[in-house]
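Regression report. Comparing outputs from two consecutive submissions.

Submission 1:
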Amino acid sequence: MKKRPGQFMGSGLVRAMQLPEDVSKGTILVSMQGRERLAVENFKGISSYTDTQIRLITRQGKICVTGRHLKIESYSRDEIEISGIIDKLEYQ
């Protein structure tokens, strides 16, 4: 298989495995349900956590969630779910 300019080496493998692009490249995936629930996939860690602000570390930078009564409902190695009243979501 000949590599085209701009194509990374594992793209054939990714296509063969039928992996979504966000998983294969580590792109963050943010989804909100109203103002009360937020899920972030492909995050790397938590840099700070209070009931008014949660800062997350991702491969693309940091995400700051600001609000009231914020709580981490669940998290795994690469996904986190936050609940509370979300006032602001900021990429840093």
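Submission 2:
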Amino acid sequence: MFQCASLGSGSKGNATLVRTPDTCLLVDCGFGLKETQSRLQAKGLSIDAVDAILVTHEHGDHSSGVARLARRFDIPVWLSRGTALHRSCVDIDSTFPLVAESTVRIGSIEILPFTVPHDAREPLQFRFTHQQRHLGLVTDTGHFTQHMLDVLAPVSTLLLEFNHCPERLAQSRYPPSLRQRIAGMHGHLSNQQALSVVAAGGLDSLESLVALHLSEENNHPDQVEQMVTEVFSGHFQIANQSDGFDWLTI
């Protein structure tokens, strides 16, 4: 068994679960303590089941709940040195460094952190491997690099950011500086950018695709679903803010 699930995905908080029969990892935690426990229970887990927390970067919708959760339940946290220096993470007692492109193993899961272009101190995303099955996670990046595509080439399941529709973003109530940041080279993936990754043909092993981090203001699930199903014939679903998505076998 190799599975993933989401506790919630969007600008109000993100957390992803990756598990095997003997290892459970929580990637990011942008929710408060009680909210995290409630969302875990909805997935059939208690906080005691979590063996480690991995942090992609320091932005609050990904990191705000990490320190308190880790201290309260004595959970080790793995993150880049740049992320560890941010004020949201400096109070964590038990930390382990992640180095981009250097594989680590936690329990029965192999983790390859890789660099992404995002406006954070030292952001990472991940490829997870168990028994020769591969899972890719990309929640925050302004664009895709060839290196990212190479890392993700063997994945059978990809959790991929579909953040915004450029037209909706351009007409949104966001101030110009925020619109520019989101659409920039170190911001967030548009639907078209994410779709191009899937349609390019480099992910030959891809069987399942999950759209993450949809903007409630600048995107719509129906639009994403229509675009994806025109080019991808495998399993597809969309994670939402309220309860993410349920367990998916990789």
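Expected: both submissions complete independently.
Actual: both completed, but the second showed a warning that disappeared on reload.
Relevant detail on submission 2: The mean pLDDT is 96.
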